[in-house]
Amino acid sequence: MQKQLLLWFLSLTTFFPTVSIASKLSIVNLRTEYTSTPLGLDVSNPEFSWQMQSERRGARQRAFRIVVVNEQGIVVWIQTR
């Protein structure tokens, strides 16, 4: 599970820099189960959280998609809203 969560962090931080170039948006304070270093979590449905920073006044998030993959690159969990 810890490698899967690490991949989630890498996926989120890899995706959002491309967005930040276009809209000056940053995703900060990535957390899983209330910690920024999720090691050895034994939770079947972990809680993910983050904060968004934008130079644009009134900017807000309308949707998200989190994809967790295992060491072989196989998708094991997806959450979308």
Please bin the fraction of helical residues: 25-40%
Overall pLDDT confidence: 76
Could you tell me the radius of gyration in angstroms? 13 Å
Measured between the Cα atoms of the first and last residue, the distance is: 22 Å
What's the tally of helices? 1
Overall tally of domains: 1
Largest sheet: spatial strand order: 1-2
> Could you tell me the number of beta strands?
4
Tertiary shape: globular
Q: Find the structural class using helix and strand composition.
A: alpha+beta
Low-confidence stretches: 13-21
H/E element string? Answer: HEEEE
Give the biggest sheet.
2 strands, antiparallel
β-strand percent reads 25-35%
Question: Can you offer a commentary on this structure?
Answer:
- By secondary structure, this protein is of the alpha+beta class.
- The protein has one domain (2-80).
- 27% of the residues lie in helices and 32% in strands.
- It has one helix and four strands; from the N terminus they run H-E-E-E-E.
- The longest helix is centred in the first third of the chain and has 22 residues, at 2-23.
- The two termini are 22 Å apart.
List the keywords.
81 residues; alpha+beta; two-stranded antiparallel sheet; two-stranded antiparallel ribbon; 4 strands
Short recap of the structure:
The chain has 81 residues and is of the alpha+beta class.
Layout of helices and strands:
Layout: H1 2-23, E1 25-32, E2 48-54, E3 65-69, E4 75-80
